[in-house]
Specification:
A: alpha/beta, Peroxisomal Thiolase, Chain A, domain 1, about 15% strand, globular, B: mainly beta, 5-stranded antiparallel sheet, 2 helices
Amino acid sequence: MNPYMHECPGGAIVGLGITDNRVDARSAADFAAEAVHLAISDAGLTLDDVDGLLVSSGKSGGVDVKLASRLGLRDLGILTQVAQAGSTANAQVQLAALAIAGGLATTVVCVHADAPLKPSKRAGDAYRASAGAVGTGFRGLSTVAGPRNPNGGYALAARRHMNRFGTTSEQLGAIAVAQRKWAAFNPRARFRDPLTIADHQASRWVVEPLHLLDCCMVSNGGVAVVVTSAERAPHLAQPPVHVRGWAQSHPGYRMERGSDWGLRTGAAIAGPAAMKMAGITPSDIDIRQIYDCYTYTVLVTLEDYGFCNKGEGGELAASGALAPGGSLPTNTGGGQLSSFYLWGMTPLSEAIIQIRGQGGDRQVPRHETAVVSGNGGILDYHSTLVLGAQSR
Amino acid sequence: MTKRIASAEDLGENAAFRVERNAASAAFFDAAGEGTLLIRVCPECDRLYAPHHKRCVDGNELAWRAASGSAQLVTWAVDHAPPVSPELSSIDGGPPVIGIVELDEGPWMYTALPGVAPEALREGMAMHVRFLPLGGAEPVPVFTPAATGPDSKEAR
């Protein structure tokens, strides 16, 4: 059974709004509203044109269906919250395109916003859970035995890959270094100073084998995109970004003998399925925007998408192919490691910018086709989009 | 050596972390107190699970079964965040090591690996359970290399 044999219903992204990332009194809902206004204006539309809204909340919560009334949206044909962690943004676009193809709406806004940082709070506190002094039952045991946060889970996965394939910390560092090179050309990026492998190696351990510079930052902000039909897209303000292929895959790992947990992700199913739907192979893709909660997530996703063989992601990263001037431009805005951290909207927004040719100093010369990955949980949830400047 | 003993300041309010039983884990901790690791088994299909599972994929409620306590190391990581208990430190008071082991019976378990030297760990290494009465409370299953302490009754 292959559910992806049919043609892609299409649809196009015609508006993009990205807020600033300043930490101030703004709530996640404030950022969300701001991002929606920016995206609608970018598309050359008004709020009266919007008849669908798909919202996504981050770590801080607070972005829900009530955003519609706050924005003054009326007579929406679809209004829902999508929640699959880092794989949400791509899924929002997929659901928007399906809603449009299925007649529920004509113009759907997808928005994600988060505000976990407070002016008085340290960044680490935003994602750190306090264990307390007493744990109860098996939940208590998990505090002692398991990863206490995503850092631990991804460290266990990265170590497994190192054990199996000889991947090194320096190879993971090459991903952080390449993305920082891209970030240097992105005025929006938070971290733009040059980075070396030595800097990466000298950064403190978070959960070994992950250094601090293997880990994404935490950001406040919002991103919204506007989706409409492929037919209507060319008549709006921006160069259309067509949805050409898609898939999701959520592995549901069995944690038992024979499991490939940590070594192979949902990208191994969703990536090839999305490319098949688009009628392309990895060699046809100009730009890769790969979800990068950690450097390791980029490495394993590139393998699963077929940009190299399984186990060769470390060599690929160390080759310089992912960096500016390399043969496989990847995370061209600096990603969540260097630019800003808004889950799947970070890679999605950069793909839109590049396909439109609006990348400024970081614009990739060939920008017809991009693949965008979304990843959530501890490699638990995956979504893929193939986007193109042309509809076919 | 960058390793150090975790100080009371590092540990803060978590200095005496302990695990308390509830109804769902009472049988597990009773067996642990006698040096036996219980895992879960489906009474219908005989499929085995790590101890925290409640239902089989076929929907049946799981029963308990004694495991051998022998396992192989799948992966590990050294957690440099403030530790929940000094009793979980790696060798020489170093930061705690967490891991996944594959029980000889098949299921994987997340586990603490107290007292180990991280550099000496290898994928597939033989491990054995022992029980650590963390904070003087319920015995918590942890795994160490089989060569250095296979006796499940010997807490430390």
